[in-house]
Design a protein that fits this description.
By secondary structure, this protein is α/β, with parallel strands linked by helices. The chain has helices spanning about 20-35, 50-60, 65-75, 95-100, 125-140, 165-180, 195-200, and strands at about 5-10, 40-45, 80-90, 90, 110-120, 140-145, 150. Strands 1, 2, 3, 4, 5, 6 and 7 form a seven-stranded mixed β-sheet that branches. About 35% of the residues are buried.
Length: about 200
């Protein structure tokens, strides 16, 4: 069976980064659950901090650098995406948004996406619902129900309702979407013209 491909987009600005740490924990949880179901997964981690200049130049020139183009292709061709951003001023970071701005609008159509974020305080957790989820809905991605937010105090939590529990639940939801999903390149059903769809609703004479 062809391995599934998972693109992990992380927008942490420091090194080491709590955003990357959360991305790694989510990736490990998804990989482990897929392995339990007998599915292999190839993971590609995309560190946006390393592409900041390339992303800015793309806006000016209209063309991606070879390095940026490779990562855009990795996201486009992946079977699923994990997207993790730090929260700045109650929303995703500018670097995170800029990367998805230069991605083709149709690249995430129908693609399972797990969204997550980090921040210094729990009061920013709703940014996942009012900022990230609408953005990926606009891009026509299939966003898993559980979004994972990690504030500074969450990292020491081990109970079922804490960070570890949310990671496991979100990973399970992404795994469920990927289970039985063929690798990229599957055929898309032909779309009938609107007039034919309307005609099919007419009563038979």
């Amino acid at each position: 069976m062809t391995p599934l491909t998972l693109a992990v987009v992380t927008a942490g600005l420091t090194q080491p980064s709590s955003t990357r740490l959360l991305a790694d924990r989510l990736t490990e949880a998804v990989s482990r659950q897929l392995a339990d179901e007998g599915r292999q997964v190839d993971v590609r981690v995309i560190e946006l901090r390393e592409l900041a200049v390339d992303i800015a130049n793309n806006f000016v020139t209209g063309f991606p650098s070879p390095a940026l183009d490779a990562e855009l292709e990795a996201v486009t061709g992946a079977d699923a995406v994990i997207a993790v951003t730090p929260i700045f001023t109650a929303s995703y970071s500018g670097l995170f948004k800029s990367f998805f701005d230069v991605l083709d609008n149709a690249a995430l159509t129908g693609k399972p996406v797990l969204v997550a974020a980090t921040g210094g305080t729990a009061r920013h957790s709703l940014a996942l619902e009012h900022a990230l989820r609408p953005m990926f809905a606009y891009l026509r991605a299939v966003v898993v129900p559980t979004a994972v937010y990690a504030s500074s105090e969450d990292w020491g939590s081990t109970d079922a309702e804490g960070l570890s529990g949310r990671i496991a639940r979100a990973a399970g939801e992404l795994t469920e979407l990927l289970s039985g999903r063929p690798s990229t390149g599957r055929a898309v059903d032909e779309v009938l013209p609107f007039e034919q769809q309307l005609a099919a609703l007419l009563p038979k004479s």
